[in-house]
Amino acid sequence: MKQFILTMFLSLSIASLSQGQDNPTTLFGGSGNMKISGFGGPTVSLGVIDGSIAMFNGGGGAIMFNNFFFGGYGSNMSFSTVTRSVGGENLRLRMRQGGLWFGYDAQAHKLVHLTSSLKMGWGHLRFYRSTTSFYDDTQSVLREHFFMLTPEAGIEVNITKFMKIALTGGYRIGFSNTIKEDDNSRINLNGQYMALTFKFGWFGKSGPITEIKKLIKD
Q: How does 115-141 read in b/e, with b if 16+ C-beta sit within 10 Å?
């Protein structure tokens, strides 16, 4: 234990003596060029669920560290043609999810640039009879939880310093789906999708913290 403490002390001493030397290159850059900002906004998407087309709306928000971002998202099925026979009844399917959102914007300073991300979501499936409200959770006759991974990539356009629009496409990969149709097949959550995301935040050359510091200093 004493040897460990001595080693840590020597390491800290050497580090303090070397502060005048060049800073190491790091993943997110040095403290002098780190830009911290953030964004939030709505998303509209079309996707394939169990072989049928469905529309989703939702949104998300994230904190940006230079070109990397980390945050959360939510998605709710707003329109669906997915109808399946379960237990002798023709039921309509509705899906809702939310979770974590990781991403990276390549050369984000350019007018049009690439963007990529991974969404890790948890949610549930609900099944409704045709005579009940599709938007009332209490009217669902079946419910099941699931986990979903959604990698995506696309292009993003800088509209202003405060707004971006991203057009992306990806593939949903669903897990923990056990409900079976009457023909003994499972509900297939896997499928392609495309999304249009509006991002509102600060995307200038300097982050908002730097801009605030400049205002205070001036």
A: bbbebebebebbbbeeeeebeeeeebe
Contacts of 204 (CB under 8 A, 6+ apart): 161, 211
Q: What is the 3-state secondary structure (H, E, C) of 1-34?
A: CHHHHHHHHHHHHHHHHCCCCCCCCCCCCCCCCC
Within 81-215, strands assigned E span: 83-86, 89-106, 112-129, 142-160, 163-175, 191-201
- pLDDT tens profile 56-71: 999 999 999 989 999 9
SS3 213: helix
94-122 pLDDT per residue, tens? 889 999 999 999 998 899 999 999 999 99
Hey, how many other C-beta atoms are within 10 angstroms of the C-beta on 33?
Answer: 8
